[in-house]
Amino acid sequence: MALDKTKIINICGKIILFSLYIIAFFFPISKAIIEIFSTLAIVCWIIKKILQQKNIPITQLNLAIFAYLAICFFSIFISSNLKISSRTFFGKILQDVTLFFVIADTLNTERRIKSFLYILFCSSLVLGVDGIYQYFTHKDFIRHRLYVGKDRIHATFPTANDFACYLNTVIPFTLVSFFVKLRLKSFRFLFASLFTLLFICLILTISRGGWFAFLSILLFMSIWIHSLAVFLLITGIFIIIGREFCYPTLPSLKERLTNFFNFLDSSSIDRDKIWDTAWRMFIHRPWLGLGIGTFMFNFNKFVVGTYTFGTPYAHNCYLQIACEVGIIGLLSFLSILILFFSHGIETIDAQPKTFQRYVLLASMAAILGYCVQMAVDTSFYSLDLGMLFWVLLGLGAAAINNIKLETVTPK
User: Fold this and answer.
1) Do residues 119 and 187 lie in contact, with contact meaning Cβ atoms separated by under 8 Å?
2) What CA–CA distance (Å, rounded) separates 321 from 313?
3) 64 and 47 both lie in a single domain
4) Start-to-end Cα distance in the chain
5) Of the candidates 10, 34, 55, which is a domain's last residue?
6) Residue 103: closest CA among 410, 342, 387, 368
């Protein structure tokens, strides 16, 4: 019986790891696949924990995450739509948070993290090629998506902003790969090529939110990797000079670079109306909100006049969180980020330049870029990018735990 139990635990462990690798590759390709394999990983992880009679992994974020979960769960019972809130909590929030613990618990060795990242790199390579292909043919070759907007690539994603968000989560890991000790120095050329491809795609998304996120990533990483400050300077010069050479081949890019700080364009005006509506929604019930997942359900009740573009997301994820679960819910979510960055920075400052340290730095930079873009986009509320947030958070938590383990039992 004990042997059968051990076999089941081992089989579950292999299924979990395989599922995470599948998720890493199919993040930008198939929502159905990542939904199936995330569910499979979670079910096997729960079975494994029950058989092992072990608790969930201990991270510095546990208390804040449980507080956030509790508030979201409580909001179901005071929600303006019980059905929507129940479905959102059990079908998305609980699943994503549980996946965080699966990641933090499973990616507990350098080899596993490397395998996960290499698969992520392979996937991003396919997406980068797809983005360039879409630029020239106006249609991507994976999902056969046509251009949504003029001269803005988005590959397999529905919008260019979503593609930019994905690129900004992968780019930090390609950057730290330059500084990790590698057996074959030729790998640095491969990482440089991948970074160049993803950077070009990021430029071609013409996503202002994505560009701000990228600049924040470089600024943050430059604190510990000073040579990136030089690249940041070169990027600034490129933005200033490059706009003069964009026309006529890239008129949309030239216009965006020229009006980089002009917030009176049509998309900004549209966001102003959405944010005005969201603010009135928040003021209506500021402390506990209108119920998790109910922003779109309540939007037309608070909009002034008519909104002709359908029922939108808030295009500011923090404001939408405040509308749905109030100030208390927003503070609990922000506490997760504060604890992650405070413990992450403390760990980085105290450790030598190891692989796990660079993984933690890249995870923090990716989360920072994600959080910057959250302020103007809807990434946290999409199935794939929303899950990606918790995966990155879990990867960072795994790196912190691995560093602590290495400190206690050095190689």
Assistant:
1) no
2) 11
3) no
4) 36
5) 55
6) 387
- CB contact at 8 A, 140 and 130: yes
Place of tokens 């679960």: 325
| Dihedral sign for Cα atoms in the order 367, 383, 276, 283 | negative
Interval 328-359: pLDDT, tens: 999 999 999 999 999 999 999 988 888 999 99
Please give the helix or strand (H or E) that residue 2 lies within, else none.
Answer: helix 2-26
One domain, residues 15 and 127: no
Give the Cα separation of 80 and 243 in Å (integer): 48
Is 243:206 a contact under the CB 8 Å cutoff? no
Residues 6+ apart with CB under 8 A from 248: none
Instruction: Give the other-Cβ count within 10 Å of 306's Cβ.
Output: 6
Same domain? 44 vs 121: no
Q: How many domains does the chain have?
A: 2
CA distances 54 to 105, 194, 401, Å, are: 11, 40, 17
Q: Which residue, of 55, 83, 99, is where some domain finishes?
A: 55
Instruction: Express each pLDDT in 173-231 by its tens digit.
Output: 999 988 887 666 677 888 889 999 999 999 999 898 999 999 999 999 999 998 887 77
Q: Exposed, middle or buried, 386 (CB in 10 Å: 0-12/13-18/19+)?
A: middle
As given in the structure block, the two tokens for residue 260 are 């980089």
Question: 3-class DSSP state for residue 331?
Answer: helix
Q: What is the pTM of this model?
A: 0.92
DSSP β-bridge partners for residue 149: 152
Omega before residue 248 within 30° of 0, cis? yes
Amino acid at 239: I
Q: Which residues pair with 139 in a beta bridge?
A: 146
The answer on 107 and 83 residing in a single domain is: yes
User: And the tokens for 276?
Assistant: 């005005």
Model confidence pLDDT, tens digit, residues 76-97: 999 999 999 999 999 999 999 9
What the block records as the tokens of 256 is: 């965006």
**CA 288 vs CA 14, 283, 294, 393: distances in Å:** 41, 11, 13, 25
Domain residues for the domain of 247 are 60-408
- Listed residue (382, 401, 340, 335) closest to 365, CA to CA: 340
From residue 186, give the alpha-carbon distance in Å to each of 17, 79, 111, 172, 384: 28, 56, 20, 19, 33
Q: Which residues pair with 146 in a beta bridge?
A: 139
